[in-house]
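Bug #77: duplicate submission created two jobs. Keeping one. Sequence:
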Amino acid sequence: RESGSPYRDRVGGYDRRMAAEALGRIVIMGAGGHATSVAETAAAAGYEIVAFVGRPDHGHTRFGVPVVPLVPDGHVASGGVLTVAEGDNWAREAAVSQLGLDVSSAVFPALVHPSASVSRFASLGVGTVILQGGVVGAAAEIGAFCIVNTGASVDHDGLLADYASIGPGAALGGEVQVGCRSAIGIGAVVKQGLTVGSDTVLGAGSYAHTDIPANCVAFGSPAAFVRKRNPGDTYLS
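Kept job's structure:
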């Protein structure tokens, strides 16, 4: 398995009862399309959304909640929590770094939609989001600030390293490992036991039947290498 997350000591088995006891006020860092899905998950889980943080051109409110340029003063100090709703994996990592806050579950809780299924034997990293209908199987390990999107699944003993994401309807077979910041596209399938390297994109609708190397874009059925991927490339490029 890939080297451990710097947040790994803050990752443990997910327990819905523990999550329920920790609910409170949340600020969503982002105000775009992905933030819409994250807001649904946060609200359905029982959090009170107090603000979205985004650019002024996103409008003044979203779902009746104000869109503001910065986290409200005193929010974290008073016990409020944050979630980073950036769909691009590199952008999400940069946003967390720029906040300059202690990366812990007390500030960045894992969010799980009530319709999702997360094994009691799985573990979720800080700041990770499991959206509607997502499935995380037994002994799966989801790193920090990952996204398991709508209807996506990570089967038994799988690994998503920090800041990785799997798109709506994507499916990872058992023991699949996905590296840091890699993105598995909408509806893509990865055969059991394979590895997808770090900073890689597997395109929508693809089928990976062999390992996919790091720092590349691959797609097709079967998936094939298309080009190298450079730092800063958008995750859909």
